[in-house]
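Q&A log
Question type: sequence-to-structure
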Amino acid sequence: MKTFSRIFSLLTVFLFFTLSSFAQKPVNWRDMGGNKGATFYQVQQDFYKYWQGKTPKKGEGYKVFKRWENYMTPRVYPSGNLLLPSTTFQNYVEWSAEKSFSGSVSMPANWTSLGPNEVPTGYDAASGRIDFVRFDPTNSNTLYVGAPDGGLWKSTNAGATWTTNTDLLTIIGCSDIAIDPGNTQIMYLATGNWESDRRSIGVLKTTNGGTTWNTTSLTWTALDNYKIRKLVMHPTNSSIMMAVTDGGIFRTTDGWATNSNVYCCNTLYDIEFKPGDPTIVYAAGQDFFKSTDTGATWNPVTTGLPAASSVSRMVLGVSAANASYVYAIAGNNTHGYLGTYRSTDSGASFTLQSSSPNILGYEKSNPGGTNGQAGHDLAIAVSPTNANTVTIGGINAWQSSDGGVTWTCVAYWLGADPNYPGQGDGPPDYVHADVQDIQYLPGSSTTMFATSDGGIYKSVNSGTNWTNLTNNLSVAQQTGIALSQSNPNLIVTGLQDIGTLKKDGSTWSGINGGDGEDAFIDRTNNLNIVTSNPSGAHSLSTDGGLTHEDITGLPTGQWFSPISQDPVTATTVYAGGRPDLYRSLDLLTSPTYSWTMLGTPNGTGNILRFVVAPSNVNIIYAIKENAVSKSINAGTNWTDVTGTLPVGNAQLTNIAISGTDPDKLWVTFSGYSAGDKVFKTINGGTNWTNLSTGLPNLPINTIVSVNASANDAVYVGADISVYYTDNTAGGAWAIFNTGLPNAAVTDLEIYYPTLKIRASTYGRGAWESDLNPVACFSNLVVSNNNPIPTGIYKSAGDLTSHASTVANGTNVVFKSDTGVVLNPLFEVLFGGVFEAMIEACMGGN
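Response status: OK
Response body:
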């Protein structure tokens, strides 16, 4: 299997570059991963060439690209092969088939969701991106929504609450669902996500309402390089379905038992049956196509439509109110509004209804310019009772009552929210930016649903007012997690496109907007919270997040710029994300704080991560994409300690240091270089040991070491799941995932007073588990030199009784297997509360 995996990876790269010479169109940075035949670096080059000398404005696609660039850069280094992230599924399946849990885990993980499991409080505080909404054809109170990295969710009470059971699908992202009206237990799921770089593995089928899913004949691998844009079912024959993809149209007449590619090979974005006559079908990409034989064959239609070369993306709308009408909304080459085109003869010809103003821009009043985000957000719905009423979604939502000639903004990303009067710039009502889908409730001409990058919204009066139905949809795309050191219920986390959220007790609230990134909570004062936005735009709140001020004095950083507190001196703060490390001695204490630029670590680009040794704060390590550096004088001077690390094969991603030994360090790598995942040094970087054996060939995003662990216990988070090892594992890793969805893990932190490990995931929010107990007590003995028998004690009382000490355990002398007394360290870490520590560690009640 391992040999096959290597051959598969090599073949992927070979075919990618072989096919690159057959690219069908010039590289366009706005298409990002949709640039078939191009490398990541070619797409990146086109982006920087376009923006040279320009100042980015909101709604022009700049931030969407930078977010994608930040995700892709470490995963495709050094080849730039855009197919590599698609091999995640294949690699994980192969590893799962051959894995052996010969490591040291003595109990399974018990991951539970920390949320957000409800809509966070605060204006513009949302949950996460929802791409589509669909309805049970026999019961309109049953809704389904799909998240690009969070799976399929179902509501049986019209959106009041939601549940999911797709967490353990290897690819939990989905792009559409089709439901058999004759038997709603039979459904078909389009896997992957059309915009992100989770390629589809095809269409899955369930016959039990989603309890289990099975593959169909439409099954792909990474080499096939497909993304499904939409999945439709014939209205009266559920065996006939079509999927529009970036490789044309795939069609089945037997419920995906077999299929054929009936139109190849251009990218298509939308497909619709003609209301009342399913023998006629329409499809659109940059061109418009029509079928008169239920999708078996297709012909282009050009009359009245713009040239494909001027179109970035086109979506379609039809209405039972007038089955001859077909609307086509087109984005231009810069993804702004090209025009609304309407056919009144069932798609034989079209007429331009309007081409201005730029309703795909971000403004609500007289929107100008020609730029937009049509490649990221574009949706349309036509009233089922009035074919002249059209609603479209871009950054905002607009509505026309005259067939697309004039438009009124009906939902605004900075609109009024009745829950937060006085905030926003309304009317119209607030709907989170970037509308992905708009649908009428079946049987209604006034009730509408809109999905966006912030969740799902409902209007019962044709778009005049909107209500957030996201409720307990836990689909947050989190980039990091920060913990209080004294309050187990206080957490701060950054989210894509949602900003920064705070969990205090059971309540989540928004404390900063934009794209949330790194953060920390002052360990001496929980009211001091430092948050980040892209490019090193850090902020400081001194009132627990109620208000915040921009942190000034630092140069612009990279998209994710780390910032952290010194482990000993709480008033000292370090900032990375730039070529040099910066330090402030008074950020948390003075309104006139200052920053000092320290030395420049080795390597290319900016500081990706850094750590300050808790046992000697003069020792700092920093990683850039291709180097590890060490300072022994608090960052003034740096020495390259990269040594034999495989920085030519993969990009460094993260770093962890022992809490007691400044020479003990771990680093992780992203990418798909098998065997290059985790490395350890015990002598400050003089030598490195490869600890990658037993890990799947996935990008490793984060690592945390367990303080005072006698066996050097560490956890890593990958693009699928969490893994554990220690010195007793014999070089093996164990998967530590019981209860954890198959989402990418972006950050890991440990809350030591209760010995909980916490994870942020990209698509399913924050999670928590007890630590592996072996990580707590491996090779420890009590003062009489008798080993602590493992697997016996269920409570602190049992352990202290064994040690013949007082009930609170303060007289227990813990020693390592080398005889080092650990009590003073435990006193520092746990404040002398041994009972709580032992309870959590031994799994007691």
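Response note: The longest helix spans residues 2-19.
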